[in-house]
């Protein structure tokens, strides 16, 4: 691939996050995702767009939706893919992230999709490798493709993101999904509210330029859409909540709680769902929920990102 190609639809040859990404670039990705979704609706869901391109999925953290979504996207585009997991690899023998990536790149890999527990790991590789690097989630930093699929789902539901009121609820401080959504939604002109317990709010919340609430009923009444986050218990280093039961009672999204609002907001959730904790099963499975639409859109978004960064001439 010619990484010096001019007139690229995206200014960067990597996708490391949505912070600083212009609205026009986000729109380009969302528009391309719509085109990819048309492919997924065909009887034969495979195109030769990335034939001859090799993609490695470097997943140092457990994942279901994101990993499978990227794999499906790569297969639908006819790319050659290699899956890497930390367990059973040389990393378990002490090999560094950079040595692992450089050895894989030496096998003539053009695209590296990485999920890592350390914030900044994708950027670290992007500065040192010739391959295109796509961030599939790095610690509590960013998860750009998740936010893009969330925005695609909202755009399909509401038609436009400008002026849309989106409340992001739950474990904000440990969520990479929340940060990418804040950056992306604000760039597209949406209004954003962060809602959750004070102990799960980031320290720099005032610098984010968003509304803040510690009352879930207030967020529900304000929002057109509610993005309900999973409690990141594996990232919490201390007891930040009295109990899961108390969290469910205070911040859990239930039909009873939604029934108090004048209108029911659209419900999103990045998954996996802790049913009965952050969201009631009846809500997750209700007509207000677009959770399964998010999963479907995840494949289309990841196809679009792969094409835009690997074969942009196809969409120009």
Strand arrangement, largest sheet? 7-6-5-8-9
Mean pLDDT: 90
The helix-and-strand class reads alpha/beta
Portion of residues within helices: 25-40%
Distance from first to last alpha carbon = 16 Å
Net shape: globular
Number of helices: 11
Element-level helix/strand string: HEHEHEHEHEHEEHEHHEHH
Describe the largest sheet. 5 strands, parallel
Q: What is the percentage of strand-forming residues?
A: 5-15%
> Uncertain runs with pLDDT below 50, 5 residues or more?
1-5
Determine Rg (CA atoms, Å): 19 Å
Tell how many strands the DSSP assignment holds: 9
Q: What are the salient characteristics of this protein?
A:
single chain, 316 residues, alpha/beta, five-stranded parallel sheet, four-stranded parallel sheet, 11 helices, globular, disordered N terminus
Summarize the structure.
This protein is an alpha/beta fold. It has helices at residues 23-40, 65-76, 97-105, 121-126, 144-158, 176-187, 216-222, 244-251, 255-259, 281-284, 291-310; strands spanning 54-59, 80-85, 111-116, 132-138, 165-169, 191-195, 211-213, 225-228, 266-268.
Strand-helix topology:
Elements: H1 23-40, E1 54-59, H2 65-76, E2 80-85, H3 97-105, E3 111-116, H4 121-126, E4 132-138, H5 144-158, E5 165-169, H6 176-187, E6 191-195, E7 211-213, H7 216-222, E8 225-228, H8 244-251, H9 255-259, E9 266-268, H10 281-284, H11 291-310
Parallel strand pairs: 1-2, 1-3, 3-4, 5-6, 5-8, 6-7, 8-9
